[in-house]
Amino acid sequence: MSEAASEQPLLQVRGVQTYYGKICALRGVDVDVPRGKIVTLIGANGAGKSTLMMTICGSPKPREGRVIYNGEDITGLPTHEIMSRDIAQSPEGRRIFPRMTVLENLQMGAMASKQDTFDGDLRRIFDLFPRLKERQAQRGGTLSGGEQQMLAIGRALMSRPKLLLLDEPSLGLAPLIVKQIFNVIQELNRTDGLTVFLVEQNAFHALRLAHHAYVMVNGAITMQGTGKELLAREEVRAAYLEGGRH
Amino acid sequence: MEYFLQQLINGLTLGSIYGLIAIGYTMVYGIIGMINFAHGDIFMVGSFIAMMMIVALGLTASAGLAFLLLALVLVLIVAMVFASVWGWTVERLAYRPLRGSFRLAPLITAIGMSIVLQNFVQVTQGARVKPLPPIVTGGFTLVTGVNGHNAVQISTMQIVIIVTTFLLMTGFSLLISKTRLGRSQRACEQDSKMAALLGVNVDRTISLTFVMGAALAAVAGLMFLLYYGVIDFYIGFLAGVKAFTAAVLGGIGSLPGAMLGGLLIGLIETFWSGYFSVEYKDVAAFSILVIVLIFMPSGLLGRPEVEKV
Ligand SMILES: Nc1ncnc2c1ncn2[C@@H]1O[C@H](COP(=O)(O)OP(=O)(O)O)[C@@H](O)[C@H]1O
Ligand SMILES: [Mg+2]
Questions:
Q1: Cα A193 from chain centroid?
Q2: Contact call for residues B188 and B175 (beta carbons, < 8 A)
Q3: Which ligand 1 atom is at minimum distance from the Cα of A47?
Q4: Of the candidates B190, B199, B202, which has its C-beta nearest A99's C-beta?
Q5: What is the DSSP string of B48-116?
Q6: Which residues pair with B91 in a beta bridge?
């Protein structure tokens, strides 16, 4: 990696336009995720947040624009190749393999990991989420929502990513569990320097956590600033925080 | 009782062959949600390649045991390689380009490839049945009957078929449940988009699934050839329909289901022929399929559709 590359953001999204057939879901999105930071993207349901997450991972592919990871243009690459570059995603809806055990789900997470560090990584995940250890022989489909979210994050961490993409980890979870999950994310960022790109509809916690934040409306970025700045803005509070504060 | 035992041995032998072919149907269905309609012909290709190799090597029953064993393993490997290449080709030409198009499209291309292959074999090998003198001979008498009646015998070939099938199925189950590749296959089956997000090469995994099914069908092809001693270009269709029935009976998508279904279809056919009439053995097998599906729509070991996440 060159000197310049280590100073540029870990992830750069440049002018990305993504379509589903004729429907335009992203209309030229620019996002920077600097190394070691937590960047949050908030927006209403249907704004295009998940589409951006998936476009970064190469499925669907953008019609225009580029995705640059660690100085490398990854726009045209197949998903499995993008994911073997220290990027991991815990997608919307968690997508736990329902008929695999918790342990097997975590083994799947280690698929893209280059070295054989499985035992140590597993221990670390179990330290972060002790519930998963208790349930390791249980099928993924039988876990509670909160446990599934822990598993989804744990699975993503098994590949030792540098960049973690998190799509609505708080969706449908009890406040206490949301808090627990956000604490883990913050801790990973602080102690391991993990770079996090976090998508949330439920904005209060996500903005408090964020070093930098974006607001997306109808497939375009309409506002950005530090988490604190956005939290203080009236239009953000009105649109995204009502009922979101636990 | 002796008659029953004899039919049981014969049924298990036939059922083993069906079961091995059925695995290919069920695995491909599991991973892409579609039936590989060219799978029966992969079995046929395996059988023909084996026949050509055996003729080329000049193998006969009089060959020494060590040579015979070595030669048959060689024949098996070559048959598996050819069948695998054909299985891979079917996926690349008939299925992959049409992924995401309407559901019947790949079915039509697969049937097309199946017809092409059948005709190719018919033209190059002739339409008549090809006989092969017995190579694996001998056997054991388990029960000596009275004046040659009620004897129970098991031939060496039957032992080979049942043991090979048992070993392959055990090995295969372990592969699917314990290895990295098996886990990837199950992951693609349950949520291929998520599998890709974890770094799994989904296309390659699907290709490998076709190849694995084809390799097992080639084993079945060689054993069928050695057991019955006659093959023609049409055996793939007949065995394919039976094995497909077996996969549906056991619960399409389920590996143990395919094995169980294969054994059951083999047993039903054999017992029906043995106790009632040979003419209606297929009717019996299909009737049982219909009855099972009425009461258990997803087959004996299949997963009910409600578990979609
Ligand atoms: N697979 C798809 N096919 C067609 N349209 C889609 C698909 N996924 C999402 N969309 C549409 O794209 C827009 C953005 O969706 P999405 O990215 O899921 O938004 P968000 O994650 O912000 O709720 C929505 O209008 C949605 O209906
Ligand atoms: Mg979303």
A1: 15
A2: no
A3: 22
A4: B190
A5: HHHHHHHHHHT--TTS-HHHHHHHHHHHHHHHHHHHHHHHHHHIIIIIGGGTTS-TTHHHHHHHHHHHH
A6: none
Distance CA B170, CA B181 (A): 16
Distance, CA of B113 to CA of B108 (rounded, Å)? 9
DSSP symbol at B302: P
Closest among A154, A40, A136 to A88, alpha carbons compared: A154
What is the ipTM metric for this complex? Answer: 0.93
Distance in Å, alpha carbon of A157 to nearest chain B alpha carbon? 10
- The binding-site residues of ligand 1, defined as CB within 6 angstroms of any ligand atom, are A 20, 23, 25, 43, 45-51
Say if residues B221 and B46 touch (Cβ distance below 8 Å). yes
Task: List CB contacts of B193: < 8 A, sequence separation 6 or more.
Answer: A59, A95
Protein residue with least CA distance to atom 3, ligand 1: A20
Domain with CATH 3.40.50.300 in chain A: 1-86+164-246
Q: Which residue has the tokens 């992924």?
A: B99
CA distance A26 to A63: 10
Q: Which two tokens stand for residue A101?
A: 């055990």
Contacts of B183 in chain A (CB under 8 A): 100, 104, 107-108
Q: Which of A12-16, A106-110, A134-138, A169-173 has the lowest mean pLDDT?
A: A169-173
- The DSSP H or E segment spanning A210 is none
| Class (C level, CATH) for A1-86+164-246 | alpha beta
pLDDT in tens, B136-154: 888 888 888 777 677 888 9
Q: Could you report the per-residue pLDDT of A29-46, keeping only the tens digit for each?
A: 999 999 999 999 999 999
Where in chain B are the domains? 2-235
A33-72 residues touching B, CB cutoff 8 A: 57, 59
Are B194 and A59 a contacting pair at CB < 8 A? no
A166 touches B at CB < 8 Å: no
Q: What is the pLDDT of residues A113-129, one digit of tens each?
A: 877 889 999 999 999 99
Buried b (16+ CB within 10 A) or exposed e, B177-213: eeeebbbbbbbbbbbbebbbbbbbbbbebbbbbbbbb
